[in-house]
Amino acid sequence: MNRVKKTFYLLCLVFLLTGCMRTEQFNAKVSQELPENIQRVQTALDEYQKGTPVFPLKKAPANASLYQKYMIDFSKMKNVLSEPPATSFEKGGHYIYVIADPGKNPQVRVMDLRIIEQIRKLQAQVDAQLQDRKPLPKGEKVGQNLYLLDFKVLGENKEQISSPYSSQQKLPVLVDGKGKIYLDYRVEVMQKLEKEGKDPKEKDLRELLYRDSYFVPVFSPAIHYEKGDPVLRAD
Questions:
Q1: Is the CB of residue 109 less than 8 Å from the CB of residue 214?
Q2: What's the count of helices (H) and strands (E) in the chain, helices before strands?
Q3: CA atoms of 220 and 231, how far apart (whole Å)
Q4: How far is the first Cα of the chain from the last one, in angstroms, to the nearest whole number?
Q5: Which residue positions does the secretion signal occupy (predicted)?
Q6: How many whole angstroms separate alpha carbon 176 and alpha carbon 78?
Q7: Which of 22, 31, 67, 175 gives 20 to 30 Å between its CA and that of 221?
Q8: Cα dihedral 188/68/137/152 (nearest 10)
């Protein structure tokens, strides 16, 4: 190998390592900023609610999932929050801030925008399949009117969607009888139940996931506890 090639490969290696270091530094910064940002928005929300019982929410999109109905509109909070947090979508971040459990105990949490984009892409593909009068890409039944998404029928490679609760855990993609896409968080729920070692009090087990986490289980169907197991129920 001549000197020019060696120099070229060394430069490539340096750029690669530098890129990895910057990515790790960025991820570390985000992981440090997110808890602080969520707490700051929670404090602002508590202050906001002293003046009005109405939540500062964006208009929900058509066919919005549960947590998309409660996306925070920071433009309505300017009197208690000078600007959106750095990790928010509004500031170029990866997270959409939402209000979880607005009926009982309003808690600020986030949805990962990267997961939302993956699901939007799959939903568009399923919609196109049905519009072309092709069969619903459903596989094994896993719950009431819920099936594993059959990527082969869809004509796509299997999409790997990482859980926001554990990056090593991949979430199964589901579809209901009308073609609506969901994600299956039952493995994460089971881990929570096993850790607590007792029957849950929550009627909807999705609460277990965001109770001690910064994330809501976006695109999850309702999860109920029946005969010792988490059971999925489509909206």
A1: yes
A2: 5, 8
A3: 12
A4: 62
A5: 1-28
A6: 40
A7: 31
A8: -60
Average pLDDT rounded to a whole number, residues 135-154: 95
User: Which residue do the tokens 């790997």 mark?
Assistant: 160
Give me the amino acid identity at 137. Answer: P
What pLDDT, on a 0 to 100 scale, did the predictor assign at position 104? 80
- The β-bridge partners of 232 are 223
d(CA 161, CA 169): 8
Q: Per residue in 198-229, pLDDT tens?
A: 788 888 899 999 998 999 999 999 999 998 89
- Going through 50-198 in order, the beta strands assigned E by DSSP cover 95-100, 107-112, 138-143, 146-149, 173-176, 181-183
| Consecutive H or E run containing 125 | helix 113-131
Which residues are CB-neighbours of 87 under 8 A, at least 6 positions away?
A: 30, 33, 34, 37, 93, 94, 95, 110
Place of tokens 């459990």: 101
The backbone torsions φ and ψ at residue 171, rounded to the nearest 5 degrees and listed phi first, read -90, 125
